[in-house]
Amino acid sequence: MGRDTEDIEREIEKARNQLASTLDELSVRANPKNLVASTKQTIVAKVNQPQVKRYAMIAAGAVVGLLVLRRVLR
Hints:
This protein has helices at residues 5-29, 32-47, 50-73.
């Protein structure tokens, strides 16, 4: 026995609503401002980790040391 047309129409309408919702969500996610904000938030979270801070300080110290050494040797 087949489904009646009202059931099929309800399913189609439900699928349309889900698709519209998905498209709205994708348009928000793909917004360049949102992508930049999300990337910035991720980078800040990574940099604020204790391990990364230590390595960043070591790298900064090495760069400063190299610059001072270069200046002295000239």
